[in-house]
From TrEMBL:
This is LysR family transcriptional regulator. InterPro entries: LysR_HTH_N, LysR_subst-bd, WH-like_DNA-bd_sf, WH_DNA-bd_sf. It comes from Amycolatopsis melonis. Residues 1-60 form the HTH lysR-type domain. Keywords: DNA-binding, Transcription, Transcription regulation. The keyword Nucleus does not apply. The keyword Transcription regulation applies. PROSITE patterns: HTH_LYSR (PS50931). It holds the Pfam family HTH_1. Belongs to the LysR transcriptional regulatory family.
Amino acid sequence: MEFSFAQLEGFVAVAEEQHFGRAAARLSMTQPPLSRLVQKLEHSVGAKLFDRGTRGARLTRAGEAFLVDARRLLALANRAPDRARRVAAGAAGYLRIGFTGASVFGVLDAALTAIGDTLPDVHVELSEMVTNDQVAALNRDEIDLGLARPPFDTDAFASRLIHREPLVLCVPGGHRLADLGRPVTAADLANEPLIMYAPDNARYFYDLVIRLLPIAHRNVVHSVSQIHTMIWLVAARRGVAFVPASATRMTIDGVAWAELEGQPDAPVELHLLWSRTHTNPALVPALQALEIIRA
């Protein structure tokens, strides 16, 4: 089946005017060419669309059904150039965001709200992945923007600090360290079983904890990569764990939180990360929208 938009426009005009002469005047053409357009359309469709008479033209049942789709096709065709321009300008289209599990606690919601309020016609696709996987996905053009932990290859990627926070200690409910009335010190942790970050899959947090705290590796009972897994293990009374303060928003029974002594102010960093060779027009206005989120 083949037909042109000119045929659809002619058909809709006749259907609405119920008269070939009036429809031709509306389209700034004479009646014979319009009649031929409609005849060709009927031939392509394989059905009679009008009952023609001396008083005008009325839609057949087939014509009534075809009118619904014809209007839809014309509306789509009229919107297509504007949508193409909006996509090219980054005001419409899609944005693929990778995020670490811990960024869900506050930062991701704020980012999605900022993008949604500013760019309502940009559809956001989310993928949870650790920083190393985000870097690989950016290199493969599988995501456009990451919420990731440093360090980064500054030749390949641009980044912007979006959030920082302190580390806190997660302990089982009723644990002595939760009721000290003061920040927990390294000496307090000397004989505590530790749930630690895996050095391969959670390198950022592993290096951060090792740098800030004198960890006794003999005390490490589990090494995992996801913060929510650490907290569940603490709830099971397997040990204590160092987690970003935003994790305290998780409502898990059987855990408590304690402040840590001696750490620098808000050492945990989260960055926006994107490729310097990105091709998605929506990324630039999205980054502008995210300017309102300050570390």
